[in-house]
Write a structure and sequence with these properties.
Layout (H helix, E strand, L loop, with lengths): L1 H13 L17 H5 L19 H11 L27 H12 L13 H21 L9 E3 L2 H12 L30 H19 L7 E6 L18 E11 L2 E10 L14 E7 L2 E8 L20 H9 L5 E6 L2 E10 L22 H4 L4 E14 L4 H6 L10 H17 L5 H12 L6 H13 L2 H4 E3 L11 E3 L2 H12 L6 H8 L6 H13 L1 H15 L20 H20 L6 H4 L2 E4 L1 H7 L10 E4 L13 H6 L8 H13 L25 H8 L3 H15 L23 E3 L5 E3 H10 L2 H17 L8 H11 L6 H10 L1 H4 E3 L17 H12 L1
Helix pairs in contact: 4-5, 5-28, 7-13, 11-12, 11-13, 12-13, 15-16, 17-29, 18-19, 23-25, 27-28, 28-29
């Protein structure tokens, strides 16, 4: 009865004021699942002709007139048959009609050159189809089914470790990357399989992480090497954490395992002939720990470090002393120092030299002199910083992780077991995302018992290591309830809902408050659920996770780190610019979430975030230093919103040229929400030049490509979008001429006849249809939130969320709350086996059993 009241209350909160609540909704009052899905009841959509006044017969005539010639039982183009479908029962073939809606929305069909209906007919027909499908979906809900055993991906594993044990480790060196599906997200449960090698990686990671967290003294010193990107220009201050007046170098977030003595060694960059760069003059190099100077080195020229040979000031080729100096001048760049356990910031940077040192010898001029070249007399640069240790151990130390783990300390041996039980109960409850059983705690105590009597800390480490390889930690387990009917739709438990919510918004395990509310059975209450969503969105972890995990995949920002523009064509592209591009988009995206802006702000913003390097590239004056700050832009500025940001313009280009096709496809898929189909296997690549070998613009070459009718249908809605961005070159710089030297033509005409010019025109076109972009964002968010690929039956849910969010101008909170309240997020469909029996989820602490169960689910 209480659950019934909660669902009724939630239903009232979800209903739009404009939505009818009588004729269609009254028959649903008796079924709790239907009550939950009343939010899918939809009003007639306004259009040139109200679709409610049209009949299925009239739309059947339109389908027959414009579609059936190609999509019939005889030809079956694109595996779509429309001539035998009943328009009075769209829900019976909802999967096909949702495909039709997508094609009509993008105006991809009918194909170019074929007769097409008027624009008003497109609008009314789409609205009618959506209304019919959405009304039927409210009567027969299908929330879909998530994986029973949903493995944490690498990103989630790392954040979960940080929250569970308060230790930040880079697990990219411990665990392999995760696969994505259909340009989706790497938290898709169906793609997160388990292999013997992955289980071995988990075992090794658990051992290393548990040792670091507990503060177990290493058996031998370890060496961590931090490489500075070769293409990073080290002529300016590269990190705000470096001191003013410095340049180049690197800032390292290093975790020192214990209080002890450590060694740092610095190697400098070499030239192509293996000579150290910039050794023609003296450089000052500072090493700092948490901002405090550890040691200042001099290197090069007449530096105090390694003594320079007499001939250093000139290029005496084959001189043994000079040759040796040019190879070994950085040998003395090492020091030993004391460090306390835990995370510390180690900085290595050169100090700028503003004037020449008095008495410095000038290079002797010869017919060929490296001394007169920038490589010899220019700036030295850091190549690798190595941190070794501990070379001497003082004590385990007081770290955030040890404070988190050791909630008690036994004062005598008799208290050790009960203290260990308390520690494991607290940690396992958080790790397993639910109250733990006594048997589960006993399992951890058994591992503790192997070492606990002799060494309490070592015993706790063994128990934590076992906990980190437990399936209850590595997998998000959702079990069908025993009372669920075959293929029934049921509400997930409060604890399962807590995990869904936490991994959606934070990409990590639930915190204590969320877990407490769920354990008390109160999270399913709509008011409590909304309160928790608001609290979690206000936490900085929400913006951080949604940027680094959601946006980085949706916008393909992760590809920027591996993208390599041709250095011969774009010598100005360096690691400094790459890092600035990425940081700009991260800060911009995070700002819209933190301020709870409309998602349309992603396209329509009149501001961005820049540092000196990026501002110089964008032509924005008055910005100095490596730190980023928000700058307001004039109206219609080319850098306003995502479309003008260098990160996205670069990843949607080839290394040597722009690609309207790549950019157009990216826009269709990620902004418009109508991804084009994959091209046929036999489509030829775009030629490098036009007819008769003469250079031609990309537009001219694509016109040749589109002469093939097979190509034209896909390129018609795609290429105009990409052409609008042609004034941006392959690294996002503004230009007036193409690679071929021809004037840029950034105009575009869509299949529906809409014309626009350049990025400003495209921007105006996209912003004019806010619901369309909001629907795309919602679609991406929902797929990310559920951890599964979306299906045709998810479309009514997406449309309902967008309609309800319109009153709040499509703010992030409105879309996110709509997702959390949706049937797809709160419900799950039970599954049946081949013999019709209900498959029940099982709880186990046997990794082998979980692996086998995972395979059974996938089969």
């Amino acid at each position: 009865m209480q659950a019934q009241q909660e669902l009724n209350t939630m239903n009232s909160a979800m209903l739009s004021p404009a939505r009818p609540s009588t004729a269609l909704c009254k028959p649903l009052a008796s079924g709790w699942a239907a009550i939950l899905l009343l939010s899918l009841c939809v009003p007639a959509t306004a259009s040139a002709q109200d679709p409610a006044t049209a009949t299925a017969t009239e739309y059947r005539q339109l389908i027959d007139q414009y579609c059936v010639a190609c999509h019939n039982t005889k030809f079956n183009n694109a595996n779509m048959v429309l001539d035998n479908l009943d328009l009075n029962q769209l829900s019976h073939d909802a999967e096909t009609w949702e495909r039709v809606i997508r094609k009509l929305r993008s105006r991809a069909m009918p194909p170019p050159g074929s007769p097409r209906p008027e624009e008003a007919t497109y609008v009314t027909m789409i609205a009618w189809m959506q209304d019919q499908i959405d009304q039927s979906a409210a009567l027969a809900p299908n929330p879909g089914r998530t994986e029973t055993f949903h493995r944490l991906n690498r990103f989630e594993y790392q954040t979960a470790i940080a929250d569970l044990l308060a230790v930040n480790v880079d697990v990219t060196q411990m665990l392999p990357g995760d696969n994505t599906y259909d340009a989706g997200f790497d938290n898709n449960g169906a793609m997160l399989s388990v292999s013997p090698s992955l289980l071995e990686s988990y075992l090794m990671a658990a051992r290393k992480i548990s040792h670091l967290a507990v503060g177990i003294i290493p058996a031998a010193p370890t060496i961590d090497n931090y490489k500075v990107p070769l293409n990073l220009i080290q002529d300016e201050r590269t990190d705000p954490r470096q001191p003013f007046g410095s340049r180049g170098g690197i800032v390292i977030d290093h975790y020192f395992p214990v209080d002890g003595r450590y060694r740092v060694k610095i190697e400098l960059q070499t030239q192509y002939n293996d000579y150290l760069r910039g050794m023609g003059r003296k450089h000052t190099l500072d090493v700092r720990l948490n901002g405090k100077l550890l040691q200042r080195f001099a290197v090069g020229g007449e530096g105090v470090g390694l003594a320079a040979p007499e001939g250093f000031a000139g290029n005496i080729m084959m001189d043994p002393e000079w040759e040796n100096y040019m190879h070994t001048a950085d040998d003395h760049l090492q020091l030993e120092f004391d460090a306390t356990a835990g995370p510390q910031v180690l900085s290595v940077a050169f100090m700028r030299s503003l004037v020449a040192e008095p008495g410095v010898m000038q290079p002797r001029q010869t017919s060929y002199s490296l001394a007169t070249e920038q490589r010899y007399f220019g700036n030295a640069a850091v190549d690798v910083v190595s941190v070794a240790g501990p070379i001497e151990v003082y004590q385990a130390g007081d770290t955030p992780s040890r404070r988190k783990i050791f909630s008690c300390r036994p004062s005598e041996t008799a208290e050790a077991s009960s203290c260990a039980r308390q520690i494991f109960t607290e940690l396992a409850t958080s790790a397993y995302r639910r109250p733990v059983t006594d048997a589960e705690v006993q399992t951890l105590l058994a591992f503790y018992g192997e070492n606990g009597a002799a060494d309490f800390d070592a015993g706790i480490q063994r128990g934590i290591e076992r906990m980190l390889v437990d399936p209850n930690f590595l997998f998000r387990i959702e079990k069908d309830p025993l009372e669920a009917a075959t293929a029934a739709t049921y509400a997930v438990s409060d604890l399962e809902l807590a995990s869904r919510l936490s991994f959606f918004l934070w990409s990590t395990i639930p915190d204590a408050e969320l877990l407490q509310v769920a354990s008390a059975g109160r999270l399913s209450d709509p008011a409590q659920l909304e309160q928790q969503v608001e609290r979690m969105l206000a936490d900085p972890r929400a913006a951080e996770s949604l940027v680094n995990n959601f946006a980085a995949q949706w916008l393909q920002l992760r590809n920027l780190k591996e993208h390599l523009p041709d250095p011969e064509i774009f010598p100005e592209f360096d690691e400094n610019l790459r890092a600035a591009y990425l940081r700009e988009t991260e800060l911009f995206f995070a700002s819209t979430i933190t301020n709870d802006d409309s998602v349309v702000e992603l396209l329509d913003a009149n501001y961005t975030f820049v540092n000196e390097r990026l501002a110089r590239h964008y032509g924005i004056e008055g910005i100095y230093g490596p730190h980023f700050r928000r700058v307001d832009l004039p109206a219609d500025h080319i850098r306003g919103g995502l479309l003008g940001q260098g990160s996205l313009l670069t990843v949607t280009s080839y290394p040597n040229r722009t690609s309207p096709v790549l950019r157009g496809k990216w826009l269709l898929q990620n902004i418009v929400g109508s991804p084009p189909p994959e091209p046929p296997a036999n489509v030829p690549a775009l030629p490098d030049s036009g007819t008769e070998g003469q250079p031609a613009s990309v537009r001219e070459r694509l016109e040749e490509h589109r002469r093939n009718p097979v190509c034209a249908s896909c390129h018609a809605p795609m290429d105009p979008l990409g052409f609008a961005l042609e004034n941006f070159d392959a690294i996002g710089s503004w230009r007036q001429l193409s690679e071929a030297g021809t004037p840029i033509d950034a105009s575009g005409i869509l299949p529906n006849g809409i014309e626009f010019e350049g990025v400003s025109g495209l921007h105006g076109h996209l912003v004019s249809d806010k619901p369309l972009f909001a629907e795309t964002v919602t679609e991406k968010l929902l797929a990310f939130a559920l951890g599964r690929g979306l299906q045709y039956y998810d479309r009514p849910t997406i449309r309902a969320i967008v309609r309800n969010a319109a009153a709040d101008d499509y703010r992030w909170s409105a879309l996110i709350k709509g997702i959390v309240r949706s049937p797809a997020f709160r419900l799950r469909q039970a599954v049946t086996s081949a013999n019709g029996e209900l498959v029940q989820g099982t709880q186990t602490t046997d990794p082998g059993a979980v692996q086998g169960r995972k395979e059974e689910t996938l089969l």
